[in-house]
Every structure is written in structure tokens, then in C-alpha cells.
Write a structure and sequence with these properties.
about 170 residues; alpha+beta; Alpha-Beta Plaits; two-stranded antiparallel ribbon; 10 strands; about 25% helix
Length: about 170
């Protein structure tokens, strides 16, 4: 990696087809991305689903990467991994084999609707993102939102259960 790398955080989630396996396999695939290096992965967490009722619980985690890929190129690579896992985008916040969200791209604020907004617009409202993110980078500052510690103070961790990833 050269001086043009960015530290990025990717949120992972799954609630279909063996979610722990889906997330663990995705960690390996993130490690294999071109011009990218996997720096660390958080523990996995079980969380209640958002959105439509009658869904299974989710398994969530966060990966920290270093990449030379531009934001849209990285998003394309993440979406290719989702497709390889059989991801179908039918129901907003519906069940999925794998969801990969680009949470942060360095300290940049990116607004490229409809494809990409970074920091991820909902991350500050989701304990299942903030807790594993805090596991990786407790001193992190979320651009436009402030210190991660302060954001976590406003989040209930009820229903969030730490798991061992595969």
C-alpha cells in the first residue's frame, strides 16, 4: 500500500443461509480485494432485525480495511461480494444473505446520491454498528457526528449479544 491509501470501515450483516458463515466468509473475501488489505475484524453480534417483521435475528460485524480503491470502486467491489452471496435487493431492510455497508472512508464526507453516502447515514443510530466499530477503533471520530464514545452513550445495547465469529 502506498501513501494514497485510506482506512475504511465496512459493516457486515446477514440473517439468511447460516449468517455466521456468511459473515465469516465475507471477511475472507474482503481480505482478497484488489488494492486492499484487511487490518482487523470485530467480534460478531446477534441483533434483532429492523424493518419488516417475521425475520430472523441478524449477525453483524465490522471490518477495518486499508484501500487504494476510490469510494465508488470499493462500493462496486462490496456489491460484487454481496451478489456472490446471493444477495437480492427486493425488500428495504428485508432479510438478506449478506449486506456490506461502507460505513466510513477515511475522514471524508461523501454524498453521491443515490449510490453512496459516507459516513453511512444510519450508522449513528444503530448499536449493532457502533458497538463492533468501537471494538476496532474506540477513539474514532465519525465525520459530521463526533466521537464514537459519545455516540455510543445514546444507544441501547438491549438485545445485542456478542458471538464468536467462525
Amino acid at each position: 500500500m502506498n501513501a494514497l491509501t485510506e482506512r475504511v470501515f465496512v459493516g457486515l450483516g446477514s440473517n439468511l443461509d447460516e449468517p455466521l458463515w456468511q459473515v465469516s466468509r465475507a471477511f475472507d473475501e474482503l481480505a482478497d480485494l484488489d488494492e486492499t488489505r484487511l487490518l482487523a475484524v470485530s467480534p460478531c453480534y446477534r441483533s434483532a432485525p429492523l424493518g419488516p417483521p417475521d425475520q430472523s435475528d441478524y449477525v453483524n460485524a465490522v471490518a477495518m480495511l486499508e484501500t487504494e480503491l476510490a469510494p465508488i470502486a470499493l462500493l462496486d467491489a462490496l456489491q460484487a461480494i454481496e451478489r456472490n452471496h446471493g444477495r437480492i435487493r427486493e425488500i428495504h431492510w428485508g432479510p438478506r444473505t449478506l449486506d456490506l455497508d461502507l460505513l466510513m472512508y477515511g475522514d471524508r464526507i461523501i454524498d453521491l446520491p443515490p449510490r453512496l453516502r459516507v459516513p453511512h447515514p444510519e450508522m449513528v443510530n444503530r448499536a449493532f454498528v457502533l458497538v463492533p466499530l468501537h471494538d476496532l477503533a474506540p477513539d474514532l471520530n465519525v465525520p459530521g457526528h463526533g466521537k464514537l464514545d459519545a455516540l455510543l452513550e445514546n444507544q441501547s445495547r438491549e438485545g445485542l449479544q456478542r458471538l464468536a465469529c467462525l
